[in-house]
Input
Amino acid sequence: MPRLAILPVTGLPLGKRWLSLGDRGQDVRQLQELLTRLGLYDGEGTGEYDLLTREAVKAFQRAYCLAADGVSGPDTCKLLTEAGIFNRVMPKTGAGESISSLAAKYGVGFQAFKDPETRRRLRRVATGQPLMLERRELIIGVASEVPAEEEAKQGATCGGLNLLRYVQPQEFTALVSNYAHPPSAWVLDLTVEPLSKRKRRILRRVRKQGHSELIWWLTTEHQRFPTSEEADAVIISVPVFVSDHYTHGVWLREIKKILTHYPCTRLLVHFDLRAQEKDASGAQRLLTAAEARIARLNRTGDLKRVGVHGWIFYQYRLKGEVRSVLVADRLTIRGMLHQIDNLNLRGILLTGSDNWWEGWQKEGSQYFLATPRILVMKHGVLA
Output
């Protein structure tokens, strides 16, 4: 009777089995190397899943919105091996350096420096103390007057900045094929109409032919998120008004729900900074700059801020009807950037901001290393 052979598991690559305290093997050593790159593990690459390794895994899971059980399961291993996970810069603290001098050196605010294990912000540092800065994308949507066909022939340029190009599903295949100088990423607008199975297959095929990233633009109502084969990242447009009132932090709850099934390293949040109005019937619309000025001049009460860093709320009267308006200011933007950083997301997209680029980049640098990108959009579409 032939004997059953028991295959050794110590030579398996990372992600092929669950790893917990006491396990040994090549995959454990690979896990330790990745945790070391993130500044979470300072032990030797022994290949043994010891207490130090378990605590490093817990720190990683807490930082990236996973259940902190110290066990390296499929979700933990998959996230660890994603390219976007290494958004950390690990500065070395020299003798006599302070938070202020380090902030000036890296061009960030003092709040940007964190402890690598806990992600807590540091107020002071000691020589040789491990520090961490995190990179995040800060994308500004700008309207283009150039027709898509002409832009495809010339290629889009914007002062050498990292460009993304807004595209709708029906024009995606043609634009990808005809662009002389493809952008760094295509942003596919799926906020109105979801993709059919046939279009998904076409997108996967076209995506393999190009070198640009593909980012899906969705809303919080979408249930189907792309796989890593279908898209590199997702932009989520979050609601401002909810039912008959505005609830500060509602977008936070929506994003946290999404993070239970989609990695934070591939998620960006979109905010439209134009004033938003709701009439007595509950109908909502975005105001132009001129309409927003008129509404503010005709307001019937005081300006009120919703929460510490929330939107500004006021009411005004138009043709005998009282209407509600929400508008963002600089403090509102700070709150958004702060929360994006706390959630450890890939970045943020701002539209309707009058292209105040330098100001937003400066605000973002208070909390993280801002990677500037420009999203070129059709004139009149969101931006």
About this structure: Residues 1 and 7 are 19 Å apart (CA to CA). The first strand starts at residue 88 and ends at 89.
